[in-house]
Specification:
Strand order of the largest sheet: 4-1-5-10-9-6-7-8
Number of helices: 11
Order of helices and strands: EEEHEHHHHHEHEHEEHEHEH
Radius of gyration: 19 Å
CATH topology: Arginase, Chain A
CATH architecture: 3-Layer(aba) Sandwich
């Protein structure tokens, strides 16, 4: 299997993030991609290649131009405004209660702030998503990784793996958040739709619900979004990811969430995966985009499920058994000690290797 990877991800190198207002060691660090790349290189059965550049147009097909502009301008604005910080997060967000009782038209007319701190809240979801000097370059690199993976599959590969970092599924059309800046999987799915005219399915197996992917395709019927994740009543992103969220308008029925109980093990998860794959099998189309997270692992520091390395191998096997071509894109996974082993197991399962 071909693996797409770029060193540009190293530009996004946070050492801390904030959790409940307190600085803590960052989880989404460059070592994540390095340990996966090293494990796949040592396997001998994977070919690691560089991505090709695809420019901004595929991003703008999914994201608001203002988000792209903000992320490009954010760190230069930090320097220009002489903010003495190692990373940038917002301290104010335009939450719904701020606008209670005000008309939608009035709220929509509020201007974007000028100060970079205000702009970060305007285009952001949370304070655990630090922006660093190289964040924009890394995020653009992750998009190129995803789109090069699409190119490989459209070019005839049965499956290809994009080692995307930063991840993407929490990024909405006009919002970064949850370690994510651009939605790699959504950009990939849109590129497939544009190139083929086919419907596309996205299978999200990260421990967290992909609220951004759901939002982007909420009213579209040409992209099916199916997600298995921890129940949002207890885990980020908290406010989306419930089973009754099925889409609206043309997208009604094209959104399917499977919230999982605490510490769900391989057996329970795989049984639910079978239901998710049955839903995908009912949908037309020949390609599945997999948002692949390993924060479902039993030892993950921020997840709360109970999957094992053997479970990942079987998961990969079952997804491949669907018989569709696979664009596999990396999302979360933060237990560095076993992250490479888990990725190797999933991909070997998808290839039919022991």
């Amino acid at each position: 299997m071909k693996v797409v990877h770029t060193d540009r991800h190293r530009g996004h190198d946070p050492s801390v993030e904030t959790y409940l207002g307190v600085p803590v060691p960052a989880c989404e660090v460059p070592e994540r991609a390095e340990v996966i790349r090293d494990a796949l290189a040592a396997d001998g059965g994977f070919e690691i290649i560089e991505p090709t550049e695809h420019g901004p147009d595929p991003i703008l097909a999914v994201h608001d131009a203002g988000l792209l502009r903000f992320l490009e301008e954010a760190w230069p604005a930090v320097q220009r405004q002489r903010i003495e910080r190692d990373f940038l997060v917002a301290d104010t967000y335009p939450v719904r209660s701020m606008f209670a009782g005000m008309s939608d038209a009035f709220v929509a007319a509020r201007p974007e702030p000028v100060a970079v701190g205000g702009r970060t809240g305007w285009w952001g979801l949370d304070s655990s998503n630090p922006i660093r000097p190289g964040t924009f370059v890394a995020a653009r690199g992750a998009v190129d990784v995803a789109l090069t993976t699409v190119d490989l599959v459209l070019g005839g590969e049965a499956a290809a793996y994009g080692l995307c970092r930063p991840p993407g599924h929490h990024a909405a059309a006009a919002m970064a958040g949850g370690y994510c800046f651009f939605n790699n999987a959504a950009i990939a799915a849109q590129a497939i739709v544009a190139a083929t005219g086919e419907r596309v399915a996205i299978l999200d197996v990260d421990v967290h619900h992909g609220n951004g992917t759901q939002q982007i395709f909420w009213r579209r019927g040409d992209v099916l979004y199916v997600s298995l994740h921890s129940d949002p009543k207890r885990l980020y992103p908290f406010f989306l990811g419930h089973a009754d969220e099925i889409g609206e308008g043309p997208g009604r029925g094209a959104n399917r969430n499977f919230p999982m109980p605490l510490r769900a093990d391989d057996s329970m998860y795989l049984a639910t995966l079978d239901s998710a794959l049955e839903r995908i099998a009912d949908e037309p189309g020949s390609i599945v985009v997999v948002s692949l997270g390993f924060d479902t692992y039993e030892q993950d520091p921020i997840g709360d499920l109970g999957l094992t390395t053997a479970g990942y191998h079987e998961m990969g096997r079952r997804v491949a058994a669907l018989g569709r071509r696979l664009v596999i894109l990396q999302e979360g996974g933060y237990h560095l000690g076993d992250l490479g082993h888990n990725a190797r197991a999933w991909l070997r399962g998808a290839e039919g290797r022991a």
